[in-house]
Structures are given as structure tokens and as C-alpha cells.
Amino acid sequence: MTTIGYLGPKGTFTKLAVDYTFNGEKKIGFTTIPECIDAVDNGEIDIGVVPLENAIEGTVQLTVDYLVHQVRLPILAEVVVPIQQHLLVHPNFSGNFQDIKEVYSHSHAIAQCHQFIHKNLPNATIQFSPSTGSAAELVAKNGDTLKAAIGNKLAAEEYKLKIFKENIHDYPNNHTRFIALTKDKRKINIKHPIKTEKTTLLITLPNDEPGALHQILSAFAWRKMNLSKIESRPTKTGLGNYFFIVDVDQPYDDVLLPGVKAELEALGCQVTILGTYPVYHIKV
User: Fold this and answer.
1) 45 with 178, same domain?
2) Are residues 153 and 208 located together in one domain of the fold?
3) Strand partners, 198
4) Could you give phi then psi for residue 233, rounded to 5 degrees?
5) Nearest in space to 269 (alpha carbons), one of 208, 202, 204
6) What angle is formed at CA 49 by the lines to CA 43 and CA 50, rounded to 5 degrees?
7) Where are the alpha helices (DSSP H) in 223-275?
8) pTM of structure
């Protein structure tokens, strides 16, 4: 049986993504993203699922930086899941918004609901948690009815909390990209249609020269290859030193992508294929 690890505990959006994507496998929650990735690398689990990017808050930088600087694992698949954030309270809570004194959740969830918190919870202080699931667990176990959590319906059901207000995220088109990581290429059984296929490249420039980014993009442009994302991150070797993460909307082939790789390497760039993989869009 395949063992799937995820950013836990139960009730997180990552757990929701895993539940809707994988059927029948053994599932293990981890407290942090690095712990989940390390578990794949150490052979404790077969596949690890972690968040990569949110439509409102952008890239989960911890995931990218850990994959680039600490543990290199190939991306096996991407799962895109709609995100609905709800205000969760203890079942004994009988007050109103003004009575809530503390709101717990992951920093990304808090940011996705910033305007709602600002307008509706004037007396609440924000407390950050490792995940939305751990925030819900804290509110459930604490017994303090003046505390609230931001999370999903799975968290409400798991920890027997009351949904005080549904859909409190500031923008309706809220989705998160999750990636499945594995130490060795393996077949996965996902019973959802493939939306598209994608290849992700890690590109490091030899030095900071005028027009360097233009040269990189030109290698894709003249081949008429569509880039759905390009992002720079510091190499952590000094100010002004960056690498680029590039998503190409096609699988790795025998001609175009090897040509791009050879052209960029001829310019002195280092090019690493982080994965070529299917993308699934999940309806919940």
C-alpha cells in the first residue's frame, strides 16, 4: 500500500486535497512542510503532498526554498483545489463578532481573510498557527469560547466546531496548488481527468548581467513555448544573487525542452528539471 504524507494535522487543506485525490492509501500527517519533505527523502513515506502556491497570497516560499536548498525531490503531480475559508468557533460560543478576542490560523489563511477580519473582528488579536488544522484543534481543545479559528469544513467536522460564518476569504476565486513529491518515479492512481501537463525548471544565472533575464525568456519565446509562471528567489549566496523557477505548459519532450536546456547552458546557466507532471483540478 502506498503511504501518503501531508501537511497536517487532520483538517488542513492539504489533507482535504489528499482525501479528494488519493483513494485507499495510508495517510500520515506532519506538523511542518520540511518534516513532510524529509519523510519522503528518508523513505518513511512514498509520496508527500505540500502546498506550493495560493491564488491570493502567492508562492509558499518555504516549500520552494526547502526543495531548492535542502532536499531535491521530483514533482510527481500537481493538484489544484478550490479554497473556502470559514470562521470556526467552539460549539458553546453564543456571542457575536465583537465578542471574539483571538483568531487562530496559518499566516496564508489569515492573509486571505484580511479584509473580513479588519471589518468584522475589531476586538480580536491574530495568532498564527502551523496550519489551519492545528488552529481548529487548538480552539476545540482549549475550551475558551472567545477564541476562533479560520479553516475549512473538514476541520469543523474533525474537531466538532461550529461554522460561525462561511466563505470569509476576501476574493472568491481562491485556489491553492499542491504538489506531490516522490523520491523515485512511480505510477499514481488519481481518478480525476488530467487538466494539462507541465514542466518546472530551476535556472541559475552565471552572474548578474544586463539582459540576462531577456536571454532566458528568448530561449522559450522563439520556440513558441508558453510560460505560466516565472519567479525569482534569492540563492542565499549574497545580495542580488537569484535563481528562477519557470513553469512551462507542456511535458518534457525530445526536442524543444532539451533545446532550451542546451541553449541556456551555453550561456553559462545551470538548468535543473524539477519535474514534468500532470495537473489535476479537483472539485470539492
Assistant:
1) yes
2) no
3) 277
4) -140, 145
5) 204
6) 115
7) 256-266
8) 0.84
